[in-house]
Amino acid sequence: MYQPMSPCPACTRHIRVTEGACPFCGASLPAEFAGQIAPDTTRRLGRAAAYTFGAVLAVTGCGASTSPTPPTPPTDTGVALDNGALTDTGTVTDQGAPPTDTVIEDRGGVDVLALMLKDADPRVRRMAVWSLGEIESRTAVPVLAPITRDGDRDVRLMAIWALGEIEDDTAVAPLGAALKDGDAGVRQMAAWALGQIESSSAVGALTPLLKDASAEVRATAAWALGEIESASALSALEAVRDDQSPSVRRAVNWAIRQIDDRR
Q: What architecture is the 38-197 domain classified under in CATH?
């Protein structure tokens, strides 16, 4: 479920505005923290607008300056595109985007965008994947699943982000496979996406990442396990409480508290 996020005043990592303290740096958050979301970025792009925007830009052969870059691999709950098309709260800015007040349930756009995933230009594939993530239709999961193995790293990142936005349990298997990707950024994004889905079936795939060579991957895996809140992850989390990275330790302790609070 979509929840608003904002940067922590201390460490700048994006966290839920409902948190009482940052789960990563431990800083206490001011009472007015929840009101710090930019007023013009509180609406998600409508499904019809997302499809139209993505399709038009893709088929017109947009250049690198207008095509969205892959989401920045998150160290918390935020995913951001850095060109202004998508903010870290998952909302769209007004840089040439179409009206956002029309939301439809017609999933015909998924079939059209699926055809674009076969385009030779990775920029077109990225735009099509981004649009599928915005449409958030479960019917897009089997379309996106093989794209998590795309030869272009940026396309893989975008596909994993899109699956995290859709939040469907059927994406757990391809995302679990993406946790073994040779690129640390891809592994981190896959961990984030599994945290978004919050399926206990992902615990077994996530726990090995608590010992990943990348501290960012370890911290994100710990965060994801905390989001899932399965007691089956406690022993693995307890085993890495003394991780050499402060950010990993904070994420691990936060995850353990999340699980304990649910018990």
A: Alpha Horseshoe (1.25)
Max distance between CA atoms of the chain, in angstroms, equals: 53
- pTM (predicted TM-score): 0.66
SS (H, E, C) the chain: CCCCEEECCCCCCEEECCCCECCCCCCECCHHHHHHCCHHHCCCCCHHHHHHHHHHHHHCCCCCCCCCCCCCCCCCCCCCCCCCCECCCCCECCCCCCCCCCCCCCCHHHHHHHHHCCCCCHHHHHHHHHHHHHHCCHHHHHHHHHHHHCCCHHHHHHHHHHHHHHCCHHHHHHHHHHCCCCCHHHHHHHHHHHHHHCCHHHHHHHHHHHHCCCHHHHHHHHHHHHHHCCHHHHHHHHCCCCCCCHHHHHHHHHHHHHHHHHC
**Nearest in space to 140 (alpha carbons), one of 120, 119, 121, 113:** 113
Identical fold for domains 38-197 and 201-263, yes or no, is yes
Domain boundaries, the chain: 38-197, 201-263
pLDDT digit string, tens, across residues 88-112: 333 333 333 333 333 333 456 888 8
The predicted pLDDT at position 223 comes to 94
Give the model confidence (pLDDT) of 46-94 as tens digits.
444 444 444 444 444 444 333 334 444 444 433 333 333 323 333 333 3
Selecting from 3.40.309.10, 1.10.486.10, 1.25.10.10, 3.30.390.50, what CATH number does the domain 201-263 have?
A: 1.25.10.10
Total number of residues shown for the chain? 263
Whole-angstrom Cα distance, residue 160 to residue 176?
10
